[in-house]
Every structure is written in structure tokens, then in C-alpha cells.
Amino acid sequence: MIKVFRARVLYYRGEIDAATRILQTVLQRHPQMDGMRPILAICLSAQGQHTKANEQLTHKVRQVAEADYDISYWLASAYLLQGRQVEALRWLETAIGLGNENVPWFESDPNWTDMHQDPRFVELMNKIKNHREQPGDHPE
């Protein structure tokens, strides 16, 4: 897992080739780590390798993502980088439904910059913000 998160740091620093190599090595050694495949898919799509990226997004990955809000978010990001906005927003909504309400990250993640003006993305962010502002939702 340390290598996976190191790869994420490298990705966000713009060292996508290095991040991709690390993730490929990890998944070759531990192919059962299906939840990490969306992260590799993000890297591959960032390199323009959309077909290879999509190959990572298996049925098993989607099953795991249905139960984990981080993996759902990574899957959403992977679909977004492939230009599949509808699927990306569906998985972002899944991540939110599972409890990932990290609006500051959603709004600052460079992968999602192009979606900031999309009404569907704005609506999802507003739902989270409005939910947080509802009286009685938070103990005093």
C-alpha cells in the first residue's frame, strides 16, 4: 500500500511514468488488489493509453468499488479521464453515497477541474454542502 500511495504522490507531482511503473509492478506481484486498479487506470489514461486503462476496470473492480468510497472515487476519476463523464459522475455519486463527502478534495483534484462548471458536478457538491448545513444533523 505504501508503494501505491507513493505512486499517487508521483502522479500528482506530474511524474506519471514513474507512478505507472510502480503500480504495474505492485499489481503484477499482487493481482488480487483489484481496488488499486483504478489508480493505474488513471495513470494510463493520463498517458493517453485509454484502452489499457479501461482493461483495468473489470467487473471485480466495480464490485469492490460498490463497497468502498475511496475506490469508487478512484473509479470515477478513471472514467472521467477516459472522457466518460456520465459513468464518472455515477461513481462519484456512489462514493458520496458511501460516505465520501470530501468537497475540498473534489473541488481541488486536478482530474476534475474540467467538471467544475458542469451542472451535474455542481449539483453533487451542493447536495453535500446542503446536507452538512442541515440543523440537527450534527451533535453539538
Walk me through this protein's architecture.
The chain has one domain (2-133): Alpha Horseshoe (Serine Threonine Protein Phosphatase 5, Tetratricopeptide repeat), CATH 1.25.40. The longest helix is centred in the last third of the chain and has 15 residues, at 119-133. α5 (59-65) crosses α6 (69-81). The chain has 140 residues and is mainly α. The protein has helices spanning 2-12, 16-29, 37-46, 50-56, 59-65, 69-81, 85-97, 103-108, 119-133. The protein contains 9 helices and no strands.
SSE inventory with pairings:
Blueprint: H1 2-12, H2 16-29, H3 37-46, H4 50-56, H5 59-65, H6 69-81, H7 85-97, H8 103-108, H9 119-133
Helix pairs in contact: 1-2, 2-3, 3-4, 3-6, 5-6, 6-7
**CATH homologous superfamily, by name?**
Tetratricopeptide repeat domain
Main beta sheet: none
The count of β-strands is 0
Write down the CATH class: Mainly Alpha
Task: Summarize the amount of helix as a percent range.
Answer: 55-70%
Total helical segments: 9
Whole-number mean pLDDT: 94
Compressed to H and E, one letter per element, the order equals HHHHHHHHH
What are its keywords?
single chain; 140 residues; mainly alpha; Serine Threonine Protein Phosphatase 5, Tetratricopeptide repeat; 9 helices; globular
Short description:
69% of the residues lie in helices and 0% in strands. The mean pLDDT is 94.
